[in-house]
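Hi W., the 3-phosphoglyceric acid complex you wanted:
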Amino acid sequence: MTKKVLLATEKPFAPAARDKVVAVLKEARYEVVLLESYTDKAQLLDAVKDVDAMIIRSDKVDPAVLDAAKNLKLVVRAGAGYDNIDCAYAKQKGVFAMNTPGQNSNAVAELVFGMMLMMARGRFSGKSGTELKGKTIGIHAVGNVGRCVARIAKGFDMTVLGYHPRRTAEVIRAAGAEPVDSAETLYAKSEYISLHVPATPENKQSIGKALLMSMPKNACVINTARKEVIHEPELLEVFEARPDFRYATDVEPSAEVAKVLQEKYADRFFMTPKKMGAQTSEANVNAGIAAAEQIVAFFEKNDRQFIVNA
Ligand code: 3PG
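Structure:
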């Protein structure tokens, strides 16, 4: 029997990427339902009712969505982080979750440098800024994005350090970063920190005052990971205590914290208007096609690669 697949993207793919996703699924003779730029959760609850699989981005797949999706067998997060899926509940309901690791990494890494340059140049204020050349960048978690950051950092003639709690020194070195033994060492040695840690329970609020205060003069943290990994009250304390501290983020802080940062520290804080690290046509095509192909491989060949909630 033919499968029905929903593409639900509150923040839509580039049209070319959407069309390619549809083409892959149609080629497999699947029925495709598009729910792009939706504004209301009720639209999602309605759209999932009778689908066998769905492709999402940061769209929340919580118990309400999973309960509404009576036929759902597979949800594929077209991207890396799957903290937006209630994986445990999905498992309980017999629904597999997958991600598409690596497919949007370069886009995110390029944005890291876009934001670093902007902060180094005083947010393009016209005042004299600084250069990236010769500075040290610490990559916190050396995975797919971290690897891309290391590669680009070399082009800027930066010293590249890396820390990853579960990767060996050899793996970190092979990724193009000099390994350090702890987050503490990484922060203490790096003028720039690029965050790539997932929002797992152990990482939530793990980056706070101790690490941020230990950074060298003119410290700058770039967050293209998740807002949850930052200890926000302590971030505010650091802004207050260190007039040289800068923070640029692609993941919007909580509303009250963002308000304070924008009002009090506008010259040292930047946030993108909408999470846009993965928002390139190329990343959309890569992640979208991978998601569609993983769905077809799952149903046609029982391919379980990329399942994250087995
Ligand atoms: C990811 O986890 O892949 C990135 O955070 C991108 O998220 P997005 O698809 O919502 O832009």
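Residues 105-271 form a domain with the Rossmann fold fold (CATH 3.40.50.720).

W.
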